[in-house]
Design a protein that fits this description.
By secondary structure, this protein is of the alpha+beta class. The chain contains four helices and twelve strands. The strands form two sheets. Strands 1, 2, 3, 4, 5, 6, 9, 10, 11 and 12 form a ten-stranded antiparallel beta sheet that branches. Helix 2 packs antiparallel against helix 3. It is globular, with a radius of gyration of 17 Å.
């Protein structure tokens, strides 16, 4: 079945650093669609759309601008997961960080918290962005370079994605499958002022 309004789609950004696999997971809700295709075909169109955001000022370019060359964004995986789970599709990216510094740590991360409109515990989440050089931190506190990086990335990360090939529009959400209403619009994206060390479960399995 093709994408239709209300479907929830999971996007997994797969990264690599020092032989570690790092996953960033983001959920989207279809807010408009006139697709006449299939859910797997629409997954592929969405994956291809995201993987192509590599031009000047676009999401992938801004994301990698602050990260070290040892970090690589390998691919993006897209899967419709609600109300019915489909097969996933992928699109290759294979681009490294653009910052000139280096790093010896794969688990040092900047954290962005997200909160939904209800303000309850079910309306919370976080994203861990790995790939940083220690020069961007002072005693574990993020420095101005990271703040500027997030100011540039936030409007792109939080944007509704308009996928012309489907065609459909997909909005970032907080997804909670155990709740009676299993999604919420993200009301606030907040950069945390201290670095985090991602644990083995987080680095290998997902964020």
């Amino acid at each position: 079945m093709a994408y239709s309004v209300g479907d929830i789609v999971e996007v997994t950004w797969q990264q690599e650093m020092f032989s570690q696999v790092i996953l960033n997971i983001q959920h989207y809700r279809v807010v408009s669609s006139t697709s006449a295709g299939s859910d797997v075909g629409d997954n592929q169109s969405f994956a291809d759309h995201l993987a192509a955001l590599t031009g000047a000022g676009q999401l992938i370019t801004v994301w990698r601008s602050g990260l070290v060359p040892e970090w690589k964004l390998s691919r993006v995986r897209v899967q419709k997961i609600n109300p019915v789970r489909s097969a996933y599709t992928t699109a290759a990216i294979n681009l490294i960080g653009l910052d000139g510094n280096d790093s010896q740590l794969s688990n040092l991360a900047v954290v962005v918290s997200k909160r939904g409109t209800s303000g309850t515990r079910r309306a919370q989440g976080s994203i861990h962005f790995a790939g940083w050089s220690p020069v961007f931190f002072n005693a574990g506190v993020i420095q101005a370079g990271i703040e500027t990086w997030w100011q540039n990335l936030e409007p792109l990360w939080s944007a509704t994605q308009v996928v012309a090939a489907i065609p459909a529009s997909l909005q970032p959400i907080i997804f909670n499958p155990g709740a009676s209403v299993n999604w919420q619009t993200v009301a606030v994206w907040q950069l945390q002022d201290t670095a985090r060390v991602m644990r083995r479960r987080t680095v290998r399995v997902g964020i």
